[in-house]
Amino acid sequence: MNPPKTQPPPVRLKPRRPRQQPPRGCTFAQQTMANNNSNGRNAAATQSSQPWGNTLQIPIDETKIIRFYYQNVNGLKLHNECADVKISCQHLYERQATVIGLSETKVEWKHHWATNSVYRALSQTWSHLKWSKSTSEIFFKKAFKPGGTCTIVNGPLSSRVSNKDTDPYGLGHWSSLTIDGRNKRKITAITAYCPPKQTINNAGPFTSFFSSFTNFAPAAQRIHDRSFSSMMTWSNI
Amino acid sequence: MIDANESLTDRGSKLKELASTCNLTSVNEHLHADLPPPATYSRGSSKIDFILISENLYAEK
Questions:
Q1: Minimal Cα–Cα distance from A106 to chain B, Å?
Q2: How far apart are CA A139 and CA A109, in angstroms?
Q3: What percent of chain A has pLDDT over 70?
């Protein structure tokens, strides 16, 4: 028989993994977002990213140049009060990105706590911003949801945003913001996500394709039934 | 700005059709026509993410 335990078992501390910080400094030429993959699965791929095209110029005269920044973020990480989002915002702020498009946000924007959490993280970096986000109509209980997009305009230009829009078919494939420019010109920034081509048989239940299919199938069925019934009516005549 | 999950050079590319219909061109290809497009997909070699803009938005040279 084991003696009664008088002391808690010793705590074994695991060595902490070093956190990856976004690169800093104006000489930085990398044109990809900082690696914020906590699982490290895509870390090798991200680390091997090389700058392409022109060297990123910093600083820029923001009264004459608008910097657009687009990134397939492969999911915004909401844990730890959106710490990863805050780091990415800092990265974008340093690079003077004004119009930002994020695809595959993988956030169920219908959860207000998730939306508020991301908005708080964004507003810590930019005091003025407008954003538009998209997600499919199907409700996910968890905050993780494949697909989705987010379009952000920050800084003084945010007061020029006259319209925001999102996918009217409820698939959550795109979101947009329209900016009123000089001489009554309008610029619409659209961030879109198109799920990869596959069939419903090989699409997993938590893929954006499956979500879109499930959302779209009843509407397609109704259209099909209507056309079929009208065809029947026509043939009966 | 789009994650199209298909290349502009694919046969029967819907994105190419969209770009043609809406008169949009890829910024990277326009500015760096001499460079091969970078892979934007960790498990592939083709470019499937694009920033497409209207022709009249390019800065005058």
A1: 13
A2: 9
A3: 62
